[in-house]
Amino acid sequence: MTVALPLTIREAVLALSNTPDARLIQGGTDMMVEVNFNHLKPNNIIALRRIQELRTWQKNADGTVTIGAGVPYQEMESGELKQLVPALAEAARTVGSPQIRAAGTLGGNLGTCSPAGDGLPVLFALDAVVHLQSHEALRQISIHEFMLGVKRNARNANEIITAVTIPLLNGWQGYAKVGVRNAMVISVASACLAIDKSTNSVRIGLGAVGPTIIRCRDAESWLSQQFDFSSTTGIDGAVAKEFGRRVTLESKPIDDHRSTAEYRRHAVGVLAQRLITRAYPS
């Protein structure tokens, strides 16, 4: 096995163009599991952890925040990033152990593209944009077009995921998931809900209940017609329950070794109802 240790993005994309079969590794929290179980035996690895450009983030003048693909979840849990994107902070806190959160990144989540990835429902709910770079060009693509299926994405073989840009919304946002225990667990079902008061709209993204993250467009549209998101009063319990039911109808879960499809449908409905009630408690 050969391992390249670039210090800049330019060095990394050059190394990738020279070894197109190389596997990219950031924190290694996904890939090393596959290696340890002999499911993956890469011949060439490009380790991105030493690239400082990938480990920075910035608030932009256009009302967005750009987070480098190498920023660890640990940094998203608190501080200014938590204030800017609260749902991402909540999702980050559910990722594995403190050691995993110190290594795991959004770039890794996007590279693996598992529907159970904790950061992905947040990116879908907030309409994030993924930044990619090759030796020849830069490219940006909507998160909705980036994830193609279970562990499949639109990254070309000669590209590196460098960052994501997330619009900053005016409104409450939160994340919740269900697992077989309270911590250090892959989600059985997850949901991110975000309110945008400027457009009087709600967004909800579901994880682990379909081949990709699901945006519940019909449920979003229905709730926007039923409730004024600039309201300072709590949401009616019957409206919240119906919202959860409509979210359930848009999920597409399967039975697997971690859960049944029936339970996952029930779980996302409950999560949606709880999240909107947290946003507008009575």
For the structure shown, list the relevant keywords.
282 residues, alpha+beta, Uridine Diphospho-n-acetylenolpyruvylglucosamine Reductase, domain 3, Enolase-like, domain 1, 2 domains, five-stranded antiparallel sheet, four-stranded antiparallel sheet, 12 helices, 35% helix
Which spans have pLDDT < 50 for at least 5 consecutive residues?
Answer: none
Helix content: 25-40%
The number of helical elements comes to 12
Q: Radius of gyration in whole Å, from Cα?
A: 19 Å
- Helix-strand pattern, N to C? EHEHEEEHHHHHHEEHEEEEEEEHHH
CATH topology of the largest domain: Uridine Diphospho-n-acetylenolpyruvylglucosamine Reductase, domain 3
Q: Estimate the strand proportion.
A: 15-25%
**How do the strands of the widest beta sheet line up side by side?**
4-5-10-6-7
* Classification by helices and strands: alpha+beta
How far is the N terminus from the C terminus?
Answer: 59 Å
Average pLDDT over all residues: 95
CATH A-level architecture of the largest domain:
2-Layer Sandwich
What summary fits the major beta sheet?
Answer: 5 strands, antiparallel
Which CATH class of the largest domain? Alpha Beta
**Tally of domains:** 2
Q: How many beta-strand runs?
A: 14
What's the shape?
Answer: globular
Structure description:
- There is one protein chain.
- The longest helix has 19 residues.
- The protein is an alpha+beta fold.
- The chain has 2 domains: 159 residues, Uridine Diphospho-n-acetylenolpyruvylglucosamine Reductase, domain 3, CATH 3.30.465.10; 107 residues, CO dehydrogenase flavoprotein, C-terminal domain (Enolase-like, domain 1).
- The chain has a 5-stranded antiparallel beta sheet with strand order 4-5-10-6-7. A 4-stranded antiparallel beta sheet has the order 11-12-13-14.
- The chain contains 12 helices and 14 strands.
